[in-house]
Amino acid sequence: MQEAVQYRNQKELFGHPVGLYILFFTEMWERFSYYGMRAILVLYLVAEATSGNPGLGWTNAEALSLYGTYTMLVYVASIPGGWIADKFLGQKQSVLVGGILLVAGHGILSIEEMWAFYSGLGLIIAGVGMLKPNISTMVGGLYKPGDIRRDKGFTIFYIGINIGAFLSSLIVGYVGEVYGWHYGFGLAAIGMLLGLIQYLVGQKHLKYVGNNTNKSIDPEEKAAMKRPLSKVEKDRVVVLFVSFILVIVFWGAFEQAGGLMNIYASEKTDRMLMGFEVPASWFQSLNAMFIIIFGTVVAAYWAKRKLKGKISTSLFKMCIGLIIMGTGFFFMTAAAAQFNSEGASAMYWLVLAYLFHTIGELCLSPVALSYITKLAPLKYASLMMGVYFAMTGFGNKVAGLLGESASDLGEYTVFTGIAIFCVVFGLLVLLIRKKLENLTHGAEDNEREISGDNEGFEIADPKINEAQ
């Protein structure tokens, strides 16, 4: 069968398809450009227009409002990006188009004109919308259904994302704050160009993944694209949409990092370390650094837990991730309390908050990406990934609104409220977890470790196969 040939012919490196590492480096450079620009965007907006490194001189509320809207649109654009891939281009070509748009967008941002600022943001929104959902779907497509390596593959992919984020926050952040904001934006464009070149060179390792399924020569794929959704598929879509609520809440809290917490680090944190003032943008690198350090540790913990027969389903991990991340905001509560009493807060509060946020993210985000590739119907694979990123976008907008509210409510109230809500909401979803997992019809029940060419592996439950 074509499917057996597809998985057998994939060259492997360190136990995973080589194509994973092509996508790893493509996404690493894309995230270098995106997070590099994100690290300095709000700081650029609030910087005085008459300073030595002039910004736009906006108020904090104005900057956070634009930040929330922009980051929301970046991810909401994943819906049309996924739809275009499903209907017309396929994921592989859509990633290419997205990369070209991103190079253009970041490049235009380096021009010191307002038309260039808004045009650049628009091109970046379109580029991320085309690239982000489709490259993630391609990662899932590298693995045969039921292959437990899929979650591990997404964790490796996720580490690539955060290597890019870590380097960009340090390099682009430093260049932007010290030498000029627009030099930082231009450096982000160079990073994306490197990612695009690497993606083109590695196409031979992506031969069987991300193609336009509407042009597929596989009769089974064609039939799957044309037939209406089965009851099993509809139930799984319902579970996905419930999980998307978790995603909105999570990112609505987490994305304070680029907004309110970024400004807080700049304005209310004592950043002196042995005579050196730590740039505010450097705190953006903590999340990525912790992911690189703890990514495989957290993945190994969940794998061992699964082998011992303990609860380790995707929904369980996502709920635990939300609770851990929410707990991290109690450290920001302590930071705000210290500022209110002493006039400045210590840097270690931010470090502890980012540590907990990172552990929570590792429990939720790569798992959510993998979950979608397990539950989404083939005909809507990219679209459902696009919806996931759109929910991430709505979470970003919520983050912006919460950040704006700090102008009236104060950071202490906002940070504490976020912490309590995330913990309580995560616990409530845990209470209904089993009912939701019943609707997946065993999508995660048949995973096992697969090595070699994977030939001969099939999902064992005949009821599932019949229903599909």
TrEMBL record:
Transmembrane spans: 67-85, 94-111, 117-135, 156-175, 181-201, 237-254, 282-303, 315-335, 347-369, 381-400, 412-432
Bilayer topology: Multi-pass membrane protein
InterPro entries: Dipep/tripep_permease (IPR005279), MFS_dom (IPR020846), MFS_trans_sf (IPR036259), MFS_Transporters (IPR050171), POT_fam (IPR000109), PTR2_symporter_CS (IPR018456)
Subcellular location: Cell membrane; Membrane
Region span, Disordered: 447-468
Residue span(s) of domain Major facilitator superfamily (MFS) profile: 19-437
Keywords associated with the record: Cell membrane, Membrane, Peptide transport, Protein transport, Transmembrane, Transmembrane helix, Transport
Pfam families: PTR2
Tree of life domain: Bacteria
Family per record: Belongs to the major facilitator superfamily. Proton-dependent oligopeptide transporter (POT/PTR) (TC 2.A.17) family.
Designated name of the protein: Peptide MFS transporter
Lineage summary: Bacteria, Pseudomonadati, Bacteroidota, Flavobacteriia, Flavobacteriales
